[in-house]
Amino acid sequence: MAQTMGRNMAAPLLFLNLIMYLILLGFASWCLNRFINGTTYHPSMGGNGATPFFLTFAMLTAVLGIASKLAGLYHIRAWRSDSLAGAGSTSLLTWAVTVLAFGLACKQINIGGHRGWRLRVVEAFIIILTFTQLLYLLLLHAGIFSRRYGPGYWDTDYGMGGGTAAPGEPPKGTAGTRVV
Fold first, then answer.
1. Which of 18, 129, 144, 151 is within CB 3.0–4.6 Å of 69 for a Cys-Cys bond?
2. Which parts of the chain span the membrane according to its record (predicted)?
3. 134, pLDDT greater than 80
């Protein structure tokens, strides 16, 4: 059980973030479509000068988040150091773009004006996802501190056969060669 503690903590957060990124993509797409069509007078739309930039980064964040969660699903299934590299790097990139969208959400809130409920939902999702994505990223990399929480970065029990041979036998893959 100790080997899967990190997996058991990261999996629900991964699923929650995936659902939130899908919802964010839907709302941001709807809002951007209304903004492009020039129908900002719609009661549930509104907007201000930061809206087009915010919606562009919100959609980019959502698409990167969905792709990151797909890599994360593979890592949760495999739970090895080689899958951690892909999941960790995409999660870090997603978090960076989410922080940019978070800054634009703060700017849009600060400017004020009429913002419809759908724009406020997009803002809220970006703010929540900034922190949940950071927590997920930290959970993925918890193996740095203890193998109890992750696959660890010093895993050598797979690959070229290192560490799998019985004492006194040559390692697998060396075909019995002996180095003197």
1. 18
2. 12-30, 50-72, 84-105, 117-139
3. yes
